[in-house]
Amino acid sequence: MDRDQLIDLTRRAVKLARDKTTDLAPAEQRVHAREYTSIERHERDVAMLTASPQLVGYVSELPAPGTYCTKTVMGRSVLLTRTSTGAVKAFNNICLHRQSQVVTGCGSAKRFTCPYHAWTYDNTGRLIGVPGREGFPDVDVKSDGLTELPATEFAGFLWVALDPSATLDISTHLGPLAEELDSWGIGRWSPLGEKVLDAPINWKLAVDTFSENYHFATVHRQTFAKIARSNCTVFDSFGAHHRLIFPLNSIMELEDVPEDQWDPFQNMVVIYALFPNIVLSVTIANGELFRIYPGAVPGRSITVHQNSTPLDLSDESVAAGAQAVFDYAHATVRDEDYRLVEGLQANLESGARDYLLFGRNEPGLQHRHASWANALQGAEQPRRN
Ligand code: FES
Ligand SMILES: [Fe+2]
User: Fold this and answer.
1) DSSP annotation of 66
2) In this structure, what CATH number is given to the domain that contains residue 141?
3) Do 47 and 65 belong to one domain?
4) What is the pTM of this model?
5) Same domain, 210 and 244
6) Which domain holds residue 220?
7) How remote is the CA of residue 245 from the centroid of ligand 2, in Å?
8) Residue 236 clears pLDDT 80, i.e. is over it
9) Which distant-in-sequence residues (6+ apart) come within 8 Å of 232 by Cβ?
10) What confidence category does residue 193 fall into, taking pLDDT thresholds of 50, 70 and 90?
11) Residues of the chain with pLDDT > 90: what percent?
12) Which of 92, 94, 100 is the pocket-test mutation for ligand 1 (most atoms within 8 Å of CB)?
Protein backbone atom coordinates (compact mmCIF):
# COMPACT_ATOMS: atom_id res chain seq x y z
CA MET A 1 0.00 0.00 0.00
CA ASP A 2 1.47 3.40 -0.90
CA ARG A 3 2.14 6.00 1.73
CA ASP A 4 -0.54 8.42 0.53
CA GLN A 5 -3.20 5.76 0.92
CA LEU A 6 -1.86 4.71 4.29
CA ILE A 7 -1.85 8.34 5.49
CA ASP A 8 -5.41 8.78 4.24
CA LEU A 9 -6.58 5.67 6.13
CA THR A 10 -4.71 6.82 9.22
CA ARG A 11 -6.39 10.22 9.04
CA ARG A 12 -9.77 8.49 8.94
CA ALA A 13 -8.79 6.23 11.86
CA VAL A 14 -7.55 9.15 13.97
CA LYS A 15 -10.80 11.02 13.37
CA LEU A 16 -12.93 8.00 14.33
CA ALA A 17 -10.83 7.42 17.46
CA ARG A 18 -11.00 11.09 18.45
CA ASP A 19 -14.78 11.15 17.94
CA LYS A 20 -15.12 7.82 19.79
CA THR A 21 -17.05 6.35 16.87
CA THR A 22 -16.65 3.91 14.00
CA ASP A 23 -17.59 3.61 10.34
CA LEU A 24 -21.28 2.77 10.24
CA ALA A 25 -23.52 0.78 7.89
CA PRO A 26 -26.76 2.55 6.89
CA ALA A 27 -28.98 0.35 9.07
CA GLU A 28 -29.06 -2.56 11.48
CA GLN A 29 -29.58 -5.95 9.93
CA ARG A 30 -31.37 -9.08 11.12
CA VAL A 31 -29.98 -12.48 10.14
CA HIS A 32 -31.90 -15.72 10.58
CA ALA A 33 -30.39 -18.33 12.90
CA ARG A 34 -30.90 -21.05 10.29
CA GLU A 35 -28.17 -19.47 8.14
CA TYR A 36 -25.83 -21.10 10.65
CA THR A 37 -27.75 -24.31 11.29
CA SER A 38 -29.67 -25.56 8.24
CA ILE A 39 -28.41 -28.47 6.14
CA GLU A 40 -29.74 -26.84 2.97
CA ARG A 41 -27.76 -23.66 3.57
CA HIS A 42 -24.71 -25.72 4.51
CA GLU A 43 -24.84 -27.60 1.21
CA ARG A 44 -25.18 -24.37 -0.73
CA ASP A 45 -22.24 -22.90 1.19
CA VAL A 46 -20.11 -25.94 0.39
CA ALA A 47 -21.02 -25.61 -3.31
CA MET A 48 -20.17 -21.87 -3.20
CA LEU A 49 -16.73 -22.50 -1.69
CA THR A 50 -16.01 -25.39 -4.02
CA ALA A 51 -16.76 -23.17 -7.01
CA SER A 52 -14.65 -20.23 -5.75
CA PRO A 53 -10.92 -19.73 -6.32
CA GLN A 54 -9.20 -20.85 -3.13
CA LEU A 55 -6.23 -19.05 -1.61
CA VAL A 56 -4.31 -21.92 0.00
CA GLY A 57 -1.00 -20.45 1.18
CA TYR A 58 1.98 -18.16 0.71
CA VAL A 59 4.18 -18.33 -2.41
CA SER A 60 7.09 -18.60 0.04
CA GLU A 61 5.88 -22.13 0.86
CA LEU A 62 7.21 -23.11 -2.58
CA PRO A 63 10.48 -21.17 -2.44
CA ALA A 64 12.36 -22.86 -5.32
CA PRO A 65 11.97 -25.31 -8.20
CA GLY A 66 11.66 -28.83 -6.82
CA THR A 67 9.79 -27.82 -3.66
CA TYR A 68 6.32 -29.04 -2.73
CA CYS A 69 3.67 -28.57 -0.08
CA THR A 70 0.40 -30.29 0.78
CA LYS A 71 -2.83 -28.62 1.82
CA THR A 72 -6.21 -29.79 3.01
CA VAL A 73 -8.90 -27.69 1.36
CA MET A 74 -12.58 -28.43 2.02
CA GLY A 75 -11.55 -31.86 3.26
CA ARG A 76 -9.57 -32.60 0.10
CA SER A 77 -5.87 -33.30 0.10
CA VAL A 78 -4.03 -31.20 -2.49
CA LEU A 79 -0.37 -31.44 -3.52
CA LEU A 80 1.30 -28.28 -4.83
CA THR A 81 4.66 -28.35 -6.55
CA ARG A 82 7.06 -25.89 -8.13
CA THR A 83 8.43 -27.55 -11.24
CA SER A 84 11.85 -27.11 -12.85
CA THR A 85 10.51 -24.21 -14.94
CA GLY A 86 9.38 -22.41 -11.78
CA ALA A 87 5.69 -22.98 -12.51
CA VAL A 88 3.26 -23.81 -9.71
CA LYS A 89 1.16 -26.92 -10.21
CA ALA A 90 -1.51 -28.55 -8.08
CA PHE A 91 -2.91 -32.06 -8.02
CA ASN A 92 -5.38 -34.13 -6.10
CA ASN A 93 -3.05 -35.86 -3.62
CA ILE A 94 -4.71 -39.17 -4.42
CA CYS A 95 -2.82 -42.18 -5.69
CA LEU A 96 -4.23 -43.75 -8.87
CA HIS A 97 -3.93 -47.19 -7.29
CA ARG A 98 -5.97 -47.32 -4.06
CA GLN A 99 -6.31 -43.57 -3.31
CA SER A 100 -3.63 -43.28 -0.64
CA GLN A 101 -2.27 -39.80 -0.05
CA VAL A 102 0.89 -39.82 -2.13
CA VAL A 103 2.79 -37.36 0.05
CA THR A 104 2.32 -35.43 3.29
CA GLY A 105 3.94 -32.28 4.70
CA CYS A 106 6.22 -30.08 2.64
CA GLY A 107 9.83 -30.06 1.47
CA SER A 108 11.98 -30.65 -1.60
CA ALA A 109 11.40 -33.65 -3.87
CA LYS A 110 11.18 -34.05 -7.63
CA ARG A 111 9.41 -37.39 -7.35
CA PHE A 112 6.90 -38.80 -4.92
CA THR A 113 6.63 -42.46 -4.01
CA CYS A 114 3.27 -43.50 -2.59
CA PRO A 115 3.80 -44.90 0.90
CA TYR A 116 1.35 -47.78 0.31
CA HIS A 117 2.70 -49.78 -2.68
CA ALA A 118 5.32 -47.38 -4.04
CA TRP A 119 3.73 -46.12 -7.23
CA THR A 120 5.89 -43.14 -8.13
CA TYR A 121 5.00 -39.76 -9.66
CA ASP A 122 7.15 -36.83 -10.79
CA ASN A 123 6.46 -33.24 -9.78
CA THR A 124 4.43 -32.62 -12.93
CA GLY A 125 2.06 -35.35 -11.72
CA ARG A 126 3.17 -37.98 -14.25
CA LEU A 127 3.12 -41.62 -13.14
CA ILE A 128 6.68 -42.83 -13.64
CA GLY A 129 6.87 -46.13 -11.81
CA VAL A 130 4.59 -49.05 -10.90
CA PRO A 131 6.18 -51.94 -8.98
CA GLY A 132 4.71 -55.34 -9.96
CA ARG A 133 3.90 -53.91 -13.37
CA GLU A 134 2.29 -57.15 -14.66
CA GLY A 135 -0.54 -56.68 -12.12
CA PHE A 136 -1.77 -53.58 -13.93
CA PRO A 137 -1.81 -54.19 -17.68
CA ASP A 138 -4.31 -51.37 -18.26
CA VAL A 139 -2.30 -48.70 -16.46
CA ASP A 140 -0.32 -46.56 -18.86
CA VAL A 141 2.90 -45.45 -17.18
CA LYS A 142 4.01 -42.10 -18.63
CA SER A 143 0.57 -41.02 -19.85
CA ASP A 144 -1.37 -41.64 -16.61
CA GLY A 145 -0.91 -39.27 -13.73
CA LEU A 146 -2.35 -37.45 -10.74
CA THR A 147 -5.43 -35.36 -11.50
CA GLU A 148 -4.23 -31.82 -12.08
CA LEU A 149 -6.09 -28.87 -10.59
CA PRO A 150 -5.86 -25.32 -11.94
CA ALA A 151 -3.21 -23.51 -9.86
CA THR A 152 -1.36 -20.23 -9.93
CA GLU A 153 0.60 -17.77 -7.81
CA PHE A 154 -0.84 -14.28 -7.62
CA ALA A 155 -0.44 -11.27 -5.29
CA GLY A 156 2.05 -13.33 -3.27
CA PHE A 157 -0.31 -16.23 -2.60
CA LEU A 158 -0.91 -19.74 -3.90
CA TRP A 159 -4.33 -20.35 -5.43
CA VAL A 160 -6.11 -23.46 -6.64
CA ALA A 161 -9.48 -24.39 -8.10
CA LEU A 162 -10.99 -27.59 -6.74
CA ASP A 163 -12.77 -28.28 -10.02
CA PRO A 164 -10.21 -29.61 -12.53
CA SER A 165 -12.15 -28.07 -15.41
CA ALA A 166 -12.42 -24.58 -13.87
CA THR A 167 -10.58 -21.52 -15.15
CA LEU A 168 -8.63 -19.66 -12.48
CA ASP A 169 -8.72 -15.88 -12.96
CA ILE A 170 -7.47 -14.36 -9.72
CA SER A 171 -6.91 -10.92 -11.22
CA THR A 172 -10.66 -10.64 -11.87
CA HIS A 173 -11.48 -12.33 -8.55
CA LEU A 174 -9.46 -9.78 -6.52
CA GLY A 175 -10.20 -6.79 -8.73
CA PRO A 176 -8.76 -3.54 -7.34
CA LEU A 177 -7.39 -5.30 -4.24
CA ALA A 178 -4.88 -7.36 -6.23
CA GLU A 179 -2.14 -4.72 -6.33
CA GLU A 180 -2.66 -3.70 -2.71
CA LEU A 181 -2.40 -7.28 -1.43
CA ASP A 182 0.72 -7.86 -3.48
CA SER A 183 2.31 -4.67 -2.18
CA TRP A 184 2.42 -5.90 1.43
CA GLY A 185 4.70 -8.76 0.44
CA ILE A 186 3.34 -10.99 3.21
CA GLY A 187 3.07 -13.94 0.84
CA ARG A 188 6.81 -13.72 0.25
CA TRP A 189 7.71 -13.50 3.95
CA SER A 190 8.94 -16.60 5.78
CA PRO A 191 6.14 -19.05 6.58
CA LEU A 192 5.83 -20.27 10.18
CA GLY A 193 3.70 -23.38 9.59
CA GLU A 194 0.04 -24.20 10.05
CA LYS A 195 -2.18 -24.64 13.10
CA VAL A 196 -5.61 -26.22 12.72
CA LEU A 197 -8.79 -25.52 14.71
CA ASP A 198 -11.50 -28.16 14.30
CA ALA A 199 -14.31 -26.28 16.04
CA PRO A 200 -18.01 -26.89 16.88
CA ILE A 201 -19.08 -23.69 15.14
CA ASN A 202 -20.50 -22.97 11.69
CA TRP A 203 -17.81 -21.73 9.30
CA LYS A 204 -19.59 -18.38 8.93
CA LEU A 205 -19.59 -17.92 12.68
CA ALA A 206 -15.83 -18.43 12.57
CA VAL A 207 -15.52 -15.80 9.82
CA ASP A 208 -17.79 -13.44 11.79
CA THR A 209 -15.32 -13.34 14.69
CA PHE A 210 -12.83 -11.56 12.38
CA SER A 211 -15.38 -9.12 10.97
CA GLU A 212 -15.65 -6.53 13.74
CA ASN A 213 -13.68 -5.17 16.71
CA TYR A 214 -16.78 -4.30 18.74
CA HIS A 215 -15.95 -7.34 20.91
CA PHE A 216 -12.34 -6.43 21.71
CA ALA A 217 -13.04 -4.64 25.02
CA THR A 218 -14.92 -7.65 26.38
CA VAL A 219 -13.65 -10.85 24.74
CA HIS A 220 -10.03 -9.67 24.43
CA ARG A 221 -9.96 -7.51 27.56
CA GLN A 222 -6.73 -9.11 28.76
CA THR A 223 -5.11 -9.50 25.32
CA PHE A 224 -5.73 -7.45 22.12
CA ALA A 225 -7.73 -4.76 23.92
CA LYS A 226 -4.60 -3.79 25.80
CA ILE A 227 -3.12 -2.52 22.54
CA ALA A 228 -6.04 -2.06 20.13
CA ARG A 229 -9.13 0.11 20.24
CA SER A 230 -12.56 -1.42 20.49
CA ASN A 231 -15.59 -0.53 18.35
CA CYS A 232 -13.50 1.69 16.08
CA THR A 233 -13.06 0.50 12.48
CA VAL A 234 -12.29 2.06 9.13
CA PHE A 235 -14.35 0.05 6.63
CA ASP A 236 -14.03 -0.16 2.83
CA SER A 237 -15.56 -2.70 0.48
CA PHE A 238 -14.14 -3.90 -2.83
CA GLY A 239 -16.84 -5.90 -4.60
CA ALA A 240 -17.29 -9.12 -2.65
CA HIS A 241 -14.19 -8.39 -0.50
CA HIS A 242 -13.59 -5.81 2.20
CA ARG A 243 -10.85 -4.21 4.27
CA LEU A 244 -11.01 -3.23 7.93
CA ILE A 245 -8.51 -0.99 9.69
CA PHE A 246 -8.33 -1.69 13.42
CA PRO A 247 -6.50 1.26 15.03
CA LEU A 248 -4.14 0.62 17.93
CA ASN A 249 -4.45 2.70 21.09
CA SER A 250 -1.26 4.53 20.10
CA ILE A 251 -3.02 6.13 17.13
CA MET A 252 -4.20 9.04 19.29
CA GLU A 253 -0.59 10.10 19.80
CA LEU A 254 -0.45 11.01 16.10
CA GLU A 255 -2.72 13.97 16.74
CA ASP A 256 0.30 15.85 18.09
CA VAL A 257 2.65 14.81 15.28
CA PRO A 258 2.81 16.47 11.82
CA GLU A 259 1.52 14.10 9.11
CA ASP A 260 4.82 13.98 7.24
CA GLN A 261 6.37 12.41 10.33
CA TRP A 262 3.69 9.76 10.74
CA ASP A 263 4.71 6.12 10.65
CA PRO A 264 1.12 4.97 10.10
CA PHE A 265 1.65 1.22 9.98
CA GLN A 266 2.88 1.28 13.59
CA ASN A 267 -0.62 2.23 14.66
CA MET A 268 -2.99 -0.22 12.99
CA VAL A 269 -3.88 -3.77 12.06
CA VAL A 270 -5.21 -4.24 8.53
CA ILE A 271 -7.74 -7.04 8.04
CA TYR A 272 -8.82 -8.25 4.62
CA ALA A 273 -11.93 -10.35 4.13
CA LEU A 274 -11.50 -12.16 0.83
CA PHE A 275 -14.60 -13.78 -0.61
CA PRO A 276 -15.77 -16.27 0.40
CA ASN A 277 -13.72 -17.81 3.25
CA ILE A 278 -10.35 -16.11 3.70
CA VAL A 279 -9.17 -13.66 6.37
CA LEU A 280 -5.80 -11.91 6.14
CA SER A 281 -4.43 -9.86 8.99
CA VAL A 282 -1.42 -7.64 8.34
CA THR A 283 0.76 -5.88 10.90
CA ILE A 284 4.26 -4.49 10.81
CA ALA A 285 5.59 -7.81 12.13
CA ASN A 286 3.44 -10.55 10.64
CA GLY A 287 0.94 -11.61 8.01
CA GLU A 288 -1.68 -13.97 9.36
CA LEU A 289 -3.85 -16.09 7.10
CA PHE A 290 -7.03 -17.84 8.21
CA ARG A 291 -8.53 -20.35 5.75
CA ILE A 292 -11.97 -21.21 7.06
CA TYR A 293 -13.87 -24.21 5.71
CA PRO A 294 -17.28 -25.74 6.37
CA GLY A 295 -17.04 -29.05 8.25
CA ALA A 296 -19.08 -32.21 7.73
CA VAL A 297 -22.19 -30.71 9.33
CA PRO A 298 -23.47 -27.10 9.66
CA GLY A 299 -22.26 -26.86 13.24
CA ARG A 300 -18.63 -27.69 12.54
CA SER A 301 -15.79 -25.96 10.73
CA ILE A 302 -12.08 -26.23 10.12
CA THR A 303 -9.84 -23.19 10.40
CA VAL A 304 -6.29 -23.43 9.12
CA HIS A 305 -4.24 -20.62 10.65
CA GLN A 306 -0.94 -19.64 9.04
CA ASN A 307 1.50 -16.88 9.78
CA SER A 308 4.44 -15.33 7.95
CA THR A 309 7.09 -12.93 9.13
CA PRO A 310 9.51 -10.48 7.51
CA LEU A 311 12.09 -11.31 10.21
CA ASP A 312 15.22 -13.36 9.48
CA LEU A 313 14.43 -16.80 10.86
CA SER A 314 17.99 -18.07 10.51
CA ASP A 315 18.63 -16.45 13.89
CA GLU A 316 17.33 -18.93 16.46
CA SER A 317 16.13 -16.41 19.01
CA VAL A 318 14.33 -14.40 16.31
CA ALA A 319 12.67 -17.60 15.07
CA ALA A 320 11.60 -18.52 18.61
CA GLY A 321 10.18 -15.02 19.10
CA ALA A 322 8.21 -15.24 15.82
CA GLN A 323 6.80 -18.64 16.85
CA ALA A 324 5.81 -17.22 20.25
CA VAL A 325 3.87 -14.42 18.52
CA PHE A 326 2.13 -17.02 16.32
CA ASP A 327 1.33 -19.22 19.37
CA TYR A 328 -0.09 -16.23 21.23
CA ALA A 329 -2.28 -15.11 18.32
CA HIS A 330 -3.53 -18.66 17.81
CA ALA A 331 -4.30 -19.22 21.49
CA THR A 332 -6.27 -15.97 21.57
CA VAL A 333 -8.46 -17.01 18.64
CA ARG A 334 -8.90 -20.53 20.04
CA ASP A 335 -9.45 -19.67 23.71
CA GLU A 336 -11.23 -16.33 23.43
CA ASP A 337 -13.11 -15.97 20.11
CA TYR A 338 -13.88 -19.58 19.16
CA ARG A 339 -14.56 -20.72 22.72
CA LEU A 340 -17.11 -17.98 23.20
CA VAL A 341 -18.92 -18.55 19.91
CA GLU A 342 -19.26 -22.29 20.66
CA GLY A 343 -21.99 -21.24 23.09
CA LEU A 344 -23.49 -19.03 20.42
CA GLN A 345 -23.68 -21.96 17.96
CA ALA A 346 -25.40 -24.07 20.63
CA ASN A 347 -27.99 -21.34 21.17
CA LEU A 348 -28.60 -21.01 17.43
CA GLU A 349 -29.12 -24.76 17.15
CA SER A 350 -31.51 -24.82 20.12
CA GLY A 351 -34.07 -22.95 18.01
CA ALA A 352 -35.03 -20.81 21.00
CA ARG A 353 -34.58 -17.53 19.14
CA ASP A 354 -34.92 -16.93 15.39
CA TYR A 355 -32.71 -13.92 14.71
CA LEU A 356 -29.31 -12.36 15.35
CA LEU A 357 -28.71 -8.67 15.01
CA PHE A 358 -25.82 -7.03 13.12
CA GLY A 359 -25.33 -3.44 14.21
CA ARG A 360 -24.57 -0.38 12.12
CA ASN A 361 -21.19 -0.49 13.85
CA GLU A 362 -20.55 -3.93 12.33
CA PRO A 363 -20.30 -3.08 8.60
CA GLY A 364 -17.81 -5.90 7.98
CA LEU A 365 -20.28 -8.47 9.27
CA GLN A 366 -23.03 -7.02 7.15
CA HIS A 367 -20.82 -6.95 4.08
CA ARG A 368 -19.66 -10.57 4.44
CA HIS A 369 -23.22 -11.83 4.73
CA ALA A 370 -24.40 -9.65 1.84
CA SER A 371 -21.57 -11.01 -0.37
CA TRP A 372 -22.53 -14.59 0.43
CA ALA A 373 -26.23 -13.93 -0.11
CA ASN A 374 -25.40 -12.29 -3.40
CA ALA A 375 -23.36 -15.25 -4.59
CA LEU A 376 -25.95 -17.76 -3.46
CA GLN A 377 -28.77 -15.90 -5.13
CA GLY A 378 -27.68 -16.80 -8.63
CA ALA A 379 -26.42 -20.24 -7.66
CA GLU A 380 -28.39 -23.37 -8.39
CA GLN A 381 -29.91 -25.13 -5.38
CA PRO A 382 -28.06 -28.41 -4.79
CA ARG A 383 -30.25 -31.41 -5.50
CA ARG A 384 -31.10 -33.56 -2.51
CA ASN A 385 -31.68 -37.27 -2.99
S1 FES B 1 -2.29 -46.75 -2.97
FE2 FES B 1 -0.59 -45.78 -3.82
S3 FES B 1 0.63 -47.39 -4.46
FE4 FES B 1 -1.09 -48.39 -3.65
FE1 LIG C 1 -11.70 -11.60 18.33
Assistant:
1) T
2) 2.102.10.10
3) no
4) 0.96
5) yes
6) 3-53+189-379
7) 14
8) yes
9) 13, 16, 17, 20, 21, 22, 213, 246, 247
10) very high
11) 94
12) 100
